[in-house]
Amino acid sequence: MILIPSIGLLKTVLIAVVVTSLSSCSRGNPIPIKSINNSLLRSANSHRNPSLGNEWLGTLALRDGRERIELINLLNGRQVPLPGLNRPDAQPISVSVNAYGDRIALIRQRGERTELLLYRRNLETIQFLDITPQGIPRHVSLNGTGRVLAIQVSRDGRWDVDIIQLPR
């Protein structure tokens, strides 16, 4: 024997499912971290292209009329120095920080050249990364370990995504 539920019962079950789904969505509303948002990020400077590591925030910040890459320690709310990274003759386009804040992948424009780079903060060194086949990088995303990189690349009028394994 096959039981067919009544339309009223189906409506009741459907309403219960929808209400349960909606109430579960509203339980975990996002809460801004005021100590960081109100101090460093709400300054007179403009921040864009955020990249979040465990306790690190990498951004492009407009300071003194030019954009630069900034790294912020979220535990103490302080900006971390990045010696050798921000050049006066370069315009940063995209930035990504790994979970530990020791590797920063970036794309910058220098003259007519668009460069893909890896900055190692503990060594204060910059490594140029080649894109094969050739293309123009536009956006970069570094994984948590800092060992794998995803890059949005323009080639022959189309957008590709390349995944690159990085050296230690």
How is this structure best described in words?
This protein is mainly β and 168 residues long. It has one domain: TolB, C-terminal domain (Neuraminidase), CATH 2.120.10. The chain contains two helices and eleven strands, in the order ααβββββββββββ. The protein has helices at 7-26, 34-37; strands at 46-52, 56-63, 66-73, 78-80, 91-97, 103-110, 113-120, 125-128, 136-142, 148-155, 158-165. The protein has a four-stranded antiparallel beta sheet with strand order 1-2-3-4, with no helix packed on it. It has a four-stranded antiparallel beta sheet with strand order 5-6-7-8, with no helix packed on it. The chain has a three-stranded antiparallel beta sheet with strand order 9-10-11, with no helix packed on it. Strand 2 (56-63) and strand 3 (66-73) form a beta hairpin. The chain is globular and about 45 Å long.
Distance between the termini: 66 Å
Helix content: 10-25%
Strand percent estimate: over 45%
Strand order of the largest sheet: 1-2-3-4
CATH topology assignment = Neuraminidase
Second CATH tier, the architecture: 6 Propeller
**What structural class do helix, strand and pairing data support?**
mainly beta
Question: What would you report as the Rg, rounded to the nearest angstrom?
Answer: 23 Å
Largest sheet, in brief, is: 4 strands, antiparallel
Order of helices and strands: HHEEEEEEEEEEE
CATH class: Mainly Beta
**What count of structural domains?**
1
Number of distinct beta strands:
11
